[in-house]
């Protein structure tokens, strides 16, 4: 049986890789010999070593006859790096404890089978739920091709994200905004609608307040959903470090495309209707590029479309102790919405946290994660 302490250690290591290993899963590994930890590792950024190899390298000769604890089934195929199963077999590991089977069709039980064929004992399922939480984005992406979408917005007690004049800075407090920058450090992309770009002129970058030292240079992809091509050329987002993509409906004005491309902005033409880009088509397009996580930051129209079309997986809502009022004040989520309360989207696994006088309510819209394949 797996030691809870050793698998917990592996899970803690996996969390260190979360947000920095994409599109690879965040994996932690621990090598144990005679009851002592002799090697630890977690997934390095793309192109670097996987968790198993990091742990085995640290263990050295002590890996022979050891037990390996790993949060995801070891890969058995050649990708950017050689298969981890081969490294485990060559190191002479005796037992392998695996928290979660990898649903990747290239693995999906084949890694476990290869280890068994080499004479190793494998144990599967210890702390599976925790391992699934850590890799919720990877599991969705590998199973559906779509990124994991988190909708984030800040609102007043009466549900407004801006006054009737459009003013919205700042509804959330400094501590809440600091937390959001920490989230930005861990996602592959940030998306807003063109109305938010015009009204707020945001930078959409990860700045301080989170992430590891030196990781601010790793900026998420900035995505502007701009069906009618109204993005102002002088927007700050186009001068920030990193990549920016403007998704628009075809046909798109050739002159505007040329102006954006001159700023090193990618223009992606997509289907749409009523001036709105097909958001699922956009998510699928960036998913095909290895984008596994998208932070949807508004505004109301884009959030409404996303919720109406059931494209949101997780919600982060900051509530500030203020009343904006007014029938023309902007609500957080537009779109068509539910006809009855019974049809409203409900959150599961809800958590509530305080950031000084702001309250964060978070939860999952999706109640079922993609099921991993079974391994004999």
Question: Which helices and strands, and how do they pair?
Answer:
Blueprint: H1 4-17, E1 28-33, E2 36-42, H2 51-59, E3 67-70, H3 84-91, E4 95-98, H4 110-117, E5 121-124, H5 128-134, H6 136-144, E6 148-156, E7 160-162, H7 174-184, E8 189-193, H8 194-200, E9 221-225, E10 244-249, H9 254-262, E11 266-270, E12 272-273, E13 276-277, H10 279-287, E14 293-296, H11 300-308, E15 314-320, E16 330-331, E17 348-355, E18 358-364
Task: Please provide the ordered H/E string of secondary-structure elements.
Answer: HEEHEHEHEHHEEHEHEEHEEEHEHEEEE
Oligomer: single chain
Taken from the alpha-carbon principal axes, the silhouette is elongated
DSSP summary, beta strand count: 18
Low-pLDDT regions: 211-216
Q: Please, what is the average pLDDT? A: 89
Radius of gyration, in Å, reads: 23 Å
Helix/strand structural class: alpha/beta
Describe the sheet with the most strands.
9 strands, mixed
Helical region count?
11
Approximate strand percentage: 15-25%
**Helix content class:** 25-40%
- The order of strands across the largest sheet is 11-10-9-8-14-6-15-18-17
C-alpha end-to-end distance: 17 Å
């Amino acid at each position: 049986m797996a030691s809870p302490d050793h698998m917990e250690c592996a899970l803690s290591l996996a969390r260190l890789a979360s947000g920095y290993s994409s599109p690879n899963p965040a994996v932690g590994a621990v090598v144990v010999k005679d009851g002592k930890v002799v090697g630890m590792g977690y997934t390095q950024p793309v192109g670097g070593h996987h968790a198993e190899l990091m742990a085995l390298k640290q263990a050295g000769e002590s890996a022979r006859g050891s037990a390996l604890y790993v949060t995801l089934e070891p890969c058995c195929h050649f990708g950017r790096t050689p298969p981890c199963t081969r490294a485990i077999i060559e190191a002479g590991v005796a037992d392998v404890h695996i928290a979660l089977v990898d649903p990747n069709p290239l693995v999906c039980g084949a890694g476990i089978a290869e280890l068994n064929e080499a004479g190793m004992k494998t144990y599967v399922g210890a702390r599976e739920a925790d391992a699934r939480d850590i890799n919720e984005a990877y599991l969705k992406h590998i199973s559906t091709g779509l990124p994991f979408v988190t909708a984030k917005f800040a609102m007043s007690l009466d549900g407004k994200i801006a006054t009737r004049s459009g003013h919205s800075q700042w509804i959330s407090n400094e501590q809440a905004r600091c937390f959001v920058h920490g989230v930005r450090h861990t996602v592959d992309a940030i998306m807003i609608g063109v109305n938010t770009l015009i009204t707020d002129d945001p930078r959409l970058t990860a700045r301080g307040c989170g992430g590891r030292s030196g990781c601010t240079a790793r900026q998420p992809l900035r995505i502007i959903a701009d069906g009618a091509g109204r993005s102002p050329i002088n927007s700050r987002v186009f001068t920030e470090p990193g990549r920016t993509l403007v998704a628009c409906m075809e046909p798109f004005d050739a002159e505007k495309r040329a102006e954006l491309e001159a700023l090193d902005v990618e223009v992606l033409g997509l289907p749409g209707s009523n001036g709105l880009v097909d958001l699922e088509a956009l998510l699928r397009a960036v998913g095909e590029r290895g984008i596994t996580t998208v932070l949807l930051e508004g505004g109301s129209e884009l959030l409404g479309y996303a919720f109406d079309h059931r494209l949101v997986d997780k919600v982060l809502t900051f509530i500030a102790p203020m009343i904006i009022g007014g029938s023309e004040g902007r609500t957080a989520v537009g779109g068509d919405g539910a006809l009855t309360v019974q049809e409203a989207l409900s959150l599961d696994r809800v958590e509530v946290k305080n950031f000084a006088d702001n309250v964060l309510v978070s939860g999952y819209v999706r109640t079922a994660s993609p099921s991993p394949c079974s391994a004999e």
